[in-house]
Backbone:
């Protein structure tokens, strides 16, 4: 039976899925928006900006090389199309954009491996030039050998924070402070669960000791962030867990608060979603073997739930095995071992989530004057005032009245926060105010005459 | 179980139902309006916002003229800005045959006191240099423009409520029947007694035909819409093209809204989606007319669920089977502009059984062959 | 003075071809493999003005997700600065105006 199998995303998840299917003798197409494979964690710099893997990926160099090599090795047998954005999925067809040319790709099976994006919570000054996401700060370094500022403050609520800080220090950048908005005691309490993966814990501790040795102030339980500066970043102020106010001079801030799956494609493909209480976000419903609620559509990696790079590889293989199983191959032997390993990762992940609980206090502290939607310039006050006026009990309705989430990013950055603000203002539980409905294009697409591929 | 009794019950909180609720309250009647979801969340909230008289069928002229007189003061009536901008609407002709069509249309419009300006291709090029393609001519309606559809129906609903209408959202009307004296209407946990019933249920209006033994060839129409990123304001007129295919306009913020052609929709799951192929084709056609559109990024797309009829005219008027039942639906993709007048017309139908605006052409009987048959036989025996 | 103080700093020098691109009419030196966002922010602190209010924008996520970094190229194309590699001869309009009056919008 000749089927068209498509994988979207060539990060660790997509690459392992592709490799597994190729090994089983199947033909497939891998689409990735990036010019080079590797995804977020194993991102490769543009040609001309390459550096040795050890420098780029540190302790993870081996895994990065393995992913890059895996793709190189199967390349003669897969139709790998880098630089190809998938911007819509409808009735079994993908709309693609490659080098300004539009394409349509019908598929029989689709593995979604689109990864994740920084979880953003606005704070005063967050739209000033010089404020980037933590992931963005890391990408500048990894992909370009560039620091986002001369003197940078890093802020976060997840394991990316100590990692990026230590990477910046390693590269010789100046870090003014490392601020964790979640409490220290949460880490202690979660340690036992995180010990499901002792190597991961050791690695995390090594980042922390690197920060300490460099003499960079590292604080936990930080709240009430505010960027100083008029036209660009000049400093960052915050309140520590004892209630003392601090301010440092800096010209850049890297800040984000965990990760959020990149799930627009799943939404357009018609997959069901559920509200996840633990991480306070909507996630696609993932069934056995990484299957979505739509037959023939599968998930791999961080796009359906944040699990990290190793889990991405495992769920990539799992999604591929599910494809094989659904095509009639007997249940693969590998599957049980895979599930056991994933269960161990899940325990570790639960530890991580507990160590970095969602920083509600940042949402509660959002002032009326703060711009929540950076594309359209909609403030928290606009959202709240609209609720008072219209009683809009639902976030798509709020969007329709206020333009929140209507801009170029389609609400990717602000949608979840708008829902939080609406829930708080209306007194409704967060799941009840819903989530922004997906619309194509997943990312802006240009009109260029006469080009169809 | 909640029980209420009103003069008029309205099914549907789109622009038709909401403007009717306001007009009826102003006429002193008690009104309850029910929407299965939120007011103005369906066609009325997602349309292209075109407030256009030009290009309408001759039978719609009295109605559209009536509406055009309301739009400029609608923000006062509703007490809020609904972003109505009378920027003017220009229909482009690409051939001499099209020009001739525009001339005929302008002559017809003139009889209804709508004065369209006919422009030569050369004048268009001089006045609006952003129209890049050589065109044969154009017709400009200076009174026409656009408004923000997301705001209008909810603003009508708020105004109606402020005037004492009982507006109930998330209240799907499940059944309705005429007892001989009044209507008995049911929704979950609700029983309504009403002297009049207004069927303004948009694409779902068919349900309130079959409940009363009527029928019409109502189908689903899902216009395809999308919008570009914001760019500096340059397109000073709303644009349409003879022969349809594409229409577009730029809002003050800079986004260009484009439409034309079919999207996709499913009434039962209440979902409409933009069709990517339609969108790419429309964008291409628009850029052939306005080259500055080339290279712009499309940032959002959508569609909506609208009732459609074979002759592209709505059904407005009294039911043929049931006294005190009023229909107003099937606006075939161009009811937004008519909305403010439709409220008044519905109000007149309730109060007097007829409207001062000629609406005979929109009578449901034009489709109901059975009813036509019956009428003829009835006529013969008398 | 703004916008001429760089936002970005190259901390890992590399060898490689250098060439020029034009940013708001100024010649700016870049290195093969530089993204446009780097090429620009190594020399100034913003990429564009914010359309709906005061202020400037300099990108945010660097991973083609937030759409904050749109800029206009000389050939009329509009691209994300964070996933477009600088090529010799490219020209970019940022519309970012210096406070010292030397407008280059
Ligand atoms: C900025 C950032 C930095 C991170 N750094 C680390 C780190 O240092 N260590 C760590 O353990 N984890 C890190 N993570 C977490 C990371 O998500 C996972 O570790 C890992 O990269 C997940 O792998 P994946 O294959 O699921 O997705 P990814 O690696 O994110 O790969 C997804 C791929 O899909 C492509 N894609 C997405 N949408 C589309 C589309 N619509 N059309 C076409 N292609 C598309 C992307 O271009 C990308 O190449 C980071 C996450 C982010 C967002
Ligand atoms: C995409 C699109 C673009 C358009 N562009 C334009 C334009 O540019 N210019 C123009 O003039 N017109 C335009 N139109 C047409 C215009 O939007 C419609 O004609 C007009 O909004 C119809 O209003 P309505 O109140 O009849 O319908 P709707 O707004 O659909 O309202 C009907 C309401 O009835 C409710 N309902 C249905 N069944 C029940 C029930 N059983 N119980 C309770 N409630 C019920 C629904 O929930 C809905 O809210 C467009 C339409 C669409 C879809
Ligand atoms: S900086 Fe976010 S898309 Fe480029």
Residues:
């Amino acid at each position: 039976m000749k089927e068209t199998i498509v994988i979207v995303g060539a990060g660790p998840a997509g690459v392992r899925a592709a490799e597994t299917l190729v090994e089983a003798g199947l033909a497939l197409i891998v689409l990735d928006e990036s010019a080079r494979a590797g995804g977020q964690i194993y991102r490769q710099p543009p040609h001309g900006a390459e550096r040795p893997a050890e420098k780029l990926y540190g302790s993870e160099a081996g895994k990065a090389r393995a992913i890059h090599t895996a793709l190189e090795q199967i390349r003669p047998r897969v139709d790998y199309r880098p630089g190809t954005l998938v911007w819509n999925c409808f009735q079994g067809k993908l709309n693609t954009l490659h080098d300004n040319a539009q394409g349509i790709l019908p598929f029989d099976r689709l593995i979604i491996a689109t990864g994740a994006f920084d979880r953003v919570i606005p704070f005063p000054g967050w739209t000033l030039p010089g404020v980037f996401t933590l992931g963005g700060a890391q990408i500048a370094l990894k992909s370009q050998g560039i620091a986002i500022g001369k003197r940078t403050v890093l802020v976060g609520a997840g394991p990316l924070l100590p990692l990026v800080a230590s990477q910046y220090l390693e590269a010789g950048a100046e870090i003014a402070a490392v601020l964790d908005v979640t409490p220290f005691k949460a880490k202690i309490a979660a340690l036992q669960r995180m010990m499901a993966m002792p190597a991961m814990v050791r690695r995390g501790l090594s980042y922390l000791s690197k920060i300490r040795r460099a003499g960079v102030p590292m604080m936990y339980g930080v709240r009430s962030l505010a960027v100083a500066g008029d036209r660009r970043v000049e400093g960052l102020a915050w309140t520590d867990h004892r209630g003392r106010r601090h301010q440092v001079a800096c010209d850049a801030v890297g800040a984000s608060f965990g990760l959020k799956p990149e799930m627009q494609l799943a939404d357009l493909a018609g997959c069901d979603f559920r509200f996840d209480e633990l991480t306070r976000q909507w996630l696609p419903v993932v069934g056995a073997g990484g299957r979505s609620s739509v037959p023939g559509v599968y998930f791999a990696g961080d796009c359906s739930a944040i699990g990290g790079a190793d889990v991405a590889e495992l769920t990539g293989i799992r999604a591929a095995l599910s494809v094989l199983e659904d095509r009639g191959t007997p249940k693969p032997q590998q599957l049980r071992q895979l599930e056991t390993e994933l269960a161990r990762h899940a325990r570790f992940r639960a530890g991580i989530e507990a160590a970095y609980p969602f920083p509600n206090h940042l949402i509660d502290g959002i002032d009326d004057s703060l711009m929540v939607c950076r594309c359209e310039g909609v403030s928290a006050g606009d959202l709240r005032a609209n609720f008072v006026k219209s009683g809009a009990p639902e976030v798509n309705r709020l969007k329709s009245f206020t333009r929140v989430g209507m801009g170029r990013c389609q609400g990717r950055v602000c949608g979840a926060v708008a829902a939080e603000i609406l829930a708080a203002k209306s007194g409704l539980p967060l799941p009840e105010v819903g989530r922004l409905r997906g619309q194509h294009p997943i990312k802006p697409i240009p009109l260029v005459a006469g080009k169809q591929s | 179980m909640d029980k209420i009794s009103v003069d008029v019950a309205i099914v549907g909180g789109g622009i038709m139902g909401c403007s009717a609720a306001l007009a009826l309250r102003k006429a002193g009647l008690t009104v309850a309006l029910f929407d299965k979801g939120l007011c103005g969340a369906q066609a009325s909230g997602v349309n292209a916002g075109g407030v256009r008289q030009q290009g309408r069928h001759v039978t719609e002229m009295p109605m559209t003229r009536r509406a055009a007189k309301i739009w400029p003061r609608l923000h006062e009536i509703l007490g809020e800005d609904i972003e109505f901008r009378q920027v003017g609407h220009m229909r482009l002709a690409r051939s001499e045959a099209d020009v001739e069509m525009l001339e005929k249309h302008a002559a017809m419009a003139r009889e209804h006191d709508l004065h369209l300006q006919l422009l030569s291709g050369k004048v268009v090029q001089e006045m609006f240099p952003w129209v890049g393609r050589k065109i044969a001519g154009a017709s400009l309606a200076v009174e026409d423009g656009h408004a923000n559809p997301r705001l209008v129906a909810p603003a009508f609903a708020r105004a109606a409520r402020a005037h004492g209408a009982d507006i109930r959202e998330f209240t799907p009307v499940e059944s309705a029947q005429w007892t001989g004296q009044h209507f008995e209407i049911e929704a979950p946990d609700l029983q309504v007694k009403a002297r009049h019933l207004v069927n303004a249920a948009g694409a779902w209006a068919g349900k309130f035909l079959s409940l009363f033994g009527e029928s019409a060839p109502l189908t689903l129409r899902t216009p395809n819409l999308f919008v570009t990123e914001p760019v500096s304001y340059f397109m000073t007129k709303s644009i349409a093209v003879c022969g349809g295919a594409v229409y577009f306009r730029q809002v003050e913020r800079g986004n260009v809204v484009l439409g034309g052609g079919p999207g996709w929709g499913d009434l039962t799951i209440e979902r409409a989606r933009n069709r990517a192929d339609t969108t790419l084709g429309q964008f291409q056609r628009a850029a052939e007319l306005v080259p500055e559109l080339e290279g712009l990024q499309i940032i959002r797309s959508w569609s909506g669920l609208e009732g459609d009829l074979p002759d592209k005219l709505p059904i407005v008027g009294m039911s043929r089977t049931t006294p005190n039942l009023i229909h107003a639906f099937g606006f075939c993709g161009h009811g937004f502009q008519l909305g403010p007048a439709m409220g008044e017309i519905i109000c007149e139908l309730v109060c007097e059984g007829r409207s001062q605006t000629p609406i005979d052409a929109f009578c449901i009987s034009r489709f109901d062959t059975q009813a036509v048959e019956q009428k003829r036989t009835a006529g013969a025996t008398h | 003075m703004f916008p001429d103080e760089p936002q970005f700093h190259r901390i890992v020098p590399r060898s490689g071809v250098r060439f020029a691109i034009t940013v708001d009419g100024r010649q700016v030196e870049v290195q093969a493999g530089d993204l446009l966002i780097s090429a620009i922010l190594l020399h100034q602190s913003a990429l564009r003005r914010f359309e709906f209010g005061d202020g400037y924008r300099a990108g945010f996520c660097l991973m083609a997700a937030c759409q904050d970094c749109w800029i206009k190229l000389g050939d009329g194309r509009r691209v994300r600065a964070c996933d477009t590699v600088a090529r010799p001869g490219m020209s970019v309009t940022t519309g970012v105006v210096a406070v010292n009056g030397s407008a280059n919008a």
Q: What stands out?
A: The pocket of flavin-adenine dinucleotide (ligand 2) is lined by residues B 11-17, 34-37, 41-44, 46-50, 172-173, 200-204, 207, 223, 225, 303-304, 306, 329, 331, 333-337 (CB under 6 Å). DSSP finds one helix and eight strands in chain C.
